[in-house]
């Protein structure tokens, strides 16, 4: 989507939200808050995708990385009795899963989509195999209300009165944007994703750069998984991630591989879901729940069909680097 | 991912020049999958051992139940039937340079389509059964064509769209089975039973659906290797630029390949409905499409090799429930073993270990979704 249209859409949506807020403040705030909570794992997972693809590696295994981390994070927290330790275990698991993908897709130069698919199948199998009932979390994740800012109407309760994971997601998007576009690391990362042969000539270790970026990105997938198990669901169940890792890839595309763009796209996705659920709850229209469930997927396909060809992915994405 | 230049996709599965491959070059193609399966079993054994069960005993239970009796064999063949077809579905895609992750969704559409055609019409048996099968194929083909058309005409990666279409299909069939196509006067979400005339006939201990799947596999073995259409698929998969130069419609071939792929998966669902379950329930058929990916990669995109690969997966799936019953081991251990098999087959681990001096061609589906 061209930037002009994206801005126009963003303004249109914001104005609509404000109008609804004037009509019904409570309901509007709850829908917008829901949207942001829905968007948190999508934002984090989209950052994983951006970090990997900007370095030239397709990560179709985000789903599996999140699932494994959600599993490890939940049982870690339940067994150690600490949500913080659980989160750290989740992030660590995500990084191990990231290193797995990096080993396959970068070191071994496997087909990147197959390498990611294996991670997904393996994660689904392992988490189901080791799944055990009867565990509960030691508590609920703390929320942080930022004084003053949280008192702003609408924006306050939505953005400044949240669980810690929500802040982490927003900060990670802003931070990744700065890192990608304003630092040496960012320039190098983008160069190995666009023209690895040129980076190699100028002395950047393409393989090393790709390996570590994919591994560290796995840590963000771990954070997303920990959020799902420890805050959003408060438990672990089989197939907890429910395709969010794949939706995140689509969000990465709508955001044109730009962290800020993906952040906006994820919130937009959350809004469609929030509005659909609200319409269903209010019984304004009789939408079968299955149609509400399929909404993000239909939206993904429709938007992909619209934007395809207008935004360009990193030029070297998907291709293992071979020295000439 | 969103935009694909077909000229950059490349399928490295088939040897571009068959004259150069001597009989010795075929050794890795057989040895690597076999060694991979054994390694995966060894690692699965460790998991079973960690749960306090003797792995040898567990595997004995698994295989004795799946292969040790006429009943067990029949069940194994029944389990393998849709797997051969979804495996073939993924193979057809791979040949044309497409990674169809959507066999699951296409299979569901075929399964519910065949169920509807099976209970909604009253037709003579000789007409009704083929009608239901074809209707199931068409439902799957239509579902596959969505991804095919988006890839061919809008350059949207089929990897993402087929994953999304899986989720949409799961929600859609759940809706259909719980509202418009629901069997009236009972609480469950399921369609009515199909008419007798639509059921696959019982013709002895070998299920007729299994025979059908074998025939289809042989047919595709012939089609993909010996016919002009197969040549078109392979050429578009290996070198779209050359295909275009040779006057092959790359877009048309991509669309056709996804339709055929979806149709095969749809047939898998139809055979499941008409031969095993007799009706459609949303809880049925889960996972069959994803096993198709494993089977196709295990078979290295060779249509005939999907038969042994599907039999292996079917054996494990058939034996896994009694494994749980007799040893308390979660049946999901089979999924772990299959994922590990896939890892060993696709990663260069086994190849490097055994054939150090020979360059082993890696399985390549697509060299990226970049423009």
Mind explaining what this structure looks like?
The complex is a heterodimer of chains A (324) and B (371). With 324 residues, chain A is mainly alpha-helical. Chain A has a single domain (3-307), classed as ABC transporter involved in vitamin B12 uptake, BtuC. In chain A, 73% of the residues lie in helices and 2% in strands. Chain A has 13 helices and two strands. Chain A has helices spanning 3-23, 25-54, 62-80, 83-107, 112-130, 155-159, 164-182, 184-194, 196-201, 206-232, 244-254, 259-281, 289-307, and strands at residues 143-145, 161-163. Chain A has a two-stranded antiparallel ribbon. The longest helix of chain A is centred in the first third of the chain and has 30 residues, at 25-54. The mean pLDDT of chain A is 90. Chain B has 371 residues and is mainly α. Chain B has a domain at 80-328: ABC transporter involved in vitamin B12 uptake, BtuC, CATH 1.10.3470. Chain B has helices at residues 26-50, 55-67, 70-95, 103-120, 125-154, 158-178, 208-226, 228-238, 240-245, 250-277, 288-298, 306-327, 333-346, 349-354. The chains are: A mainly alpha (324), B mainly alpha (371). At the A-B interface, helix 5, helix 11 and helix 13 of A face helix 5, helix 6, helix 11 and helix 13 of B.
How many domain units of chain A? 1
Q: Which segments of chain B are poorly predicted (pLDDT under 50) over 5 or more consecutive residues?
A: 1-22, 366-371
Estimate what percentage of residues of chain B fall within beta strands: under 5%
Q: Do you know the CATH architecture of the domain at 80-328 in chain B?
A: Orthogonal Bundle
What number is the mean pLDDT of chain A? 90
For the record, give the distance between the C-alpha atoms at the N and C termini of chain B, rounded to a whole number: 8 Å
Count of DSSP-assigned helices of chain A? 13
Greatest contact between two chains: A-B, 51 and 52 residues
**CATH uppermost class of the domain at 80-328 in chain B:** Mainly Alpha
- If you compute it from the alpha carbons, what radius of gyration of chain A comes out, rounded to the nearest whole angstrom? 20 Å
């Amino acid at each position: 989507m061209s930037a002009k249209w994206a801005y126009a859409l963003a303004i249109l949506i914001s104005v609509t939200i404000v109008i609804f807020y004037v009509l019904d403040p409570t309901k509007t705030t709850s829908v917008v808050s829901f949207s942001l909570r829905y968007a948190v794992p999508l934002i984090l997972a989209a950052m994983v995708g951006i970090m990997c693809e900007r370095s030239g590696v397709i990560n179709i295994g985000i789903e599996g990385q999140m699932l494994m981390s959600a599993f490890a994070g939940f049982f870690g927290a339940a067994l150690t009795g600490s949500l913080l330790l659980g989160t750290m275990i989740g992030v660590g698991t995500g990084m191990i899963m990231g290193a797995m993908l990096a080993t396959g897709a970068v070191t071994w130069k496997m087909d990147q989509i197959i390498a990611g698919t294996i991670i997904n199948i393996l994660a689904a199998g392992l988490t189901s195999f080791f799944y055990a009932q009867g565990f509960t979390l030691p508590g609920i994740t703390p929320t942080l209300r930022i004084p003053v800012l949280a008192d702003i109407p609408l924006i306050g309760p939505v953005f400044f009165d949240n669980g810690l994971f929500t802040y982490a997601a927003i900060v990670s998007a802003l931070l990744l944007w700065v890192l990608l576009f304003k630092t040496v690391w960012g320039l190098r990362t983008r160069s190995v994703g666009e023209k690895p042969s040129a980076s190699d000539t100028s002395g950047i270790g393409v393989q090393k750069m790709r390996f570590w970026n994919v591994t560290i990105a796995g840590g963000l997938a771990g954070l997303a998984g920990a959020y799902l198990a420890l805050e959003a669901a408060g438990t672990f169940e089989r197939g907890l991630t429910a395709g969010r890792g794949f939706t995140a890839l689509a969000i990465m595309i709508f955001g044109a591989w730009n962290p800020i763009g993906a952040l906006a796209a994820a919130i937009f996705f959350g809004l469609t879901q929030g509005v659909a659920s609200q319409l269903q709850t209010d019984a304004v229209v009789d939408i079968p729940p299955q149609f509400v469930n399929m909404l993000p997927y239909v939206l993904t396909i429709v938007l992909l069909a619209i934007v395809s060809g207008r935004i360009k992915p990193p030029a070297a994405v998907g291709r293992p680097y071979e020295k000439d | 991912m969103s935009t694909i230049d077909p000229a950059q996709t490349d399928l490295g599965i088939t040897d571009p020049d068959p004259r150069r491959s001597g009989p010795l070059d075929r050794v890795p193609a057989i040895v690597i999958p076999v060694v991979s399966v054994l390694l995966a079993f060894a690692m699965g054994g460790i998991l079973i051992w960690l749960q306090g069960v003797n792995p040898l005993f567990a595997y004995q239970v698994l295989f004795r139940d799946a292969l040790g009796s006429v009943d067990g064999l029949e069940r194994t063949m029944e389990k393998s039937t849709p797997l051969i077809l979804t495996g073939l579905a993924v193979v057809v895609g791979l040949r044309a340079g497409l990674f169809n992750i959507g066999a699951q969704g296409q299979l569901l559409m075929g399964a519910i389509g065949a169920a509807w055609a099976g209970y909604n019409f009253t037709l003579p048996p000789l007409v009704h059964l083929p009608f239901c099968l074809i209707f199931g194929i068409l439902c799957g083909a239509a579902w596959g064509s969505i991804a095919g058309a988006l890839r061919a005409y809008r350059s949207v990666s089929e990897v993402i769209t087929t994953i999304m279409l899986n989720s949409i299909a799961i929600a859609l069939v759940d809706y259909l089975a719980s509202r418009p196509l629901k069997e009236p006067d009972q609480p469950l979400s399921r369609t009515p039973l199909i008419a007798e005339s639509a059921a696959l006939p019982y013709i002895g201990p070998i299920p007729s659906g299994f025979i059908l799947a074998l025939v289809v596999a042989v047919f595709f073995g012939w089609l993909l290797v010996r016919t002009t259409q197969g040549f078109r698929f392979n050429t578009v998969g290996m070198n779209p630029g050359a295909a275009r130069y040779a006057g092959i419609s790359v877009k048309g071939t991509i669309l056709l390949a996804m339709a055929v792929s979806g149709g095969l998966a749809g047939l898998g669902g139809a055979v499941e409905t008409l031969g095993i379950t007799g009706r459609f329930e949303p809880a049925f058929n889960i996972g069959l499409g994803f096993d198709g990916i494993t089977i196709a990669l295990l078979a290295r995109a060779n249509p005939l090799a999907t038969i042994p690969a599907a039999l292996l997966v079917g054996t494990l799936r058939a034996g896994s429930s009694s494994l749980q019953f007799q040893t308390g081991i979660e049946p999901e251990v089979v999924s772990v073993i299959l994922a590990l098999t896939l890892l060993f087959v696709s990663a260069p681990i086994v190849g490097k270990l055994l054939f150090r001096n020979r360059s082993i061609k890696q399985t390549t589906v697509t060299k990226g979704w970049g423009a």
